[in-house]
Amino acid sequence: MLAVIPDFSKLIEVISIAVFGILGVGWGLVKFIQSRSKSDNFIAIHTEIHELLTELRVNSKAMRVSVLQFHNGEYFMDGISMRKFSITHESSHKGYISQSLKFKNVLCSLFIPLLNKILENKGIVHHVDAMSSSYAKHFFEDENISHYACLPIRNKNINIGFILLQWHFDFPPDMENQQSMVDYFESIRDSVEIQLSYQKN
């Protein structure tokens, strides 16, 4: 009488399906946790930036503080990239309208006087009246801005954007303590740079 050899093929098939199922669930769980972690990180970074801007606005008595970042996305007929900037973060005093739509996909070439001040890398307060006649000056005048200050935002020694403070005639900056305000402005800018650098981590 021949001995019956058990058929393990079905058992092996069941075990294989179970193992692959467990591995699939585990991989999915890892991806979910990583995605959730990135989402939480994103929220934490941008919450901190907003809080920094609000702190700067309140302490400088500005009407509005914004982070604007450079980008492109379109091209001229000769293939040269259009250099633009847009508001990515903003803190406004109660009663003042957001500029997020007005500063969206704005051509850098329209704001050369402002960009020149940004490149100076000095957080001093400037009078809009002192600007040369330009689109930038007319824009600020139409927005009832009397004074402004700006500093570049950098990542790996590349200018990726800037912080812009704006004052209305009702909220003139304290010109007597301008140096302390500049130092404070620079410290907030440095903190914003650090937060933005976390985005790629």
**Domain tally:** 1
Remind me, CATH topology? Beta-Lactamase
C-alpha Rg, in Å? 27 Å
What is the global morphology?
A: elongated
Average per-residue pLDDT, rounded, comes to 85
Unreliable spans? none
CATH class: Alpha Beta
Instruction: Enumerate how many helices there are, as a single number.
Output: 4
Structural class based on helices, strands and sheet pairing: alpha+beta
According to CATH, the homologous superfamily is GAF domain
Query: What does the main sheet amount to?
Result: 6 strands, antiparallel
Strand content: 15-25%
What is the topology, as strand order, of the major beta sheet?
A: 3-2-1-6-5-4
Q: How many β-strand runs?
A: 6
What share of residues is helical? 40-55%
CATH architecture classification name: 2-Layer Sandwich
Cα-to-Cα separation, first versus last residue? 70 Å
How do the helices and strands follow one another from N- to C-terminus?
HEEEHEHEEH
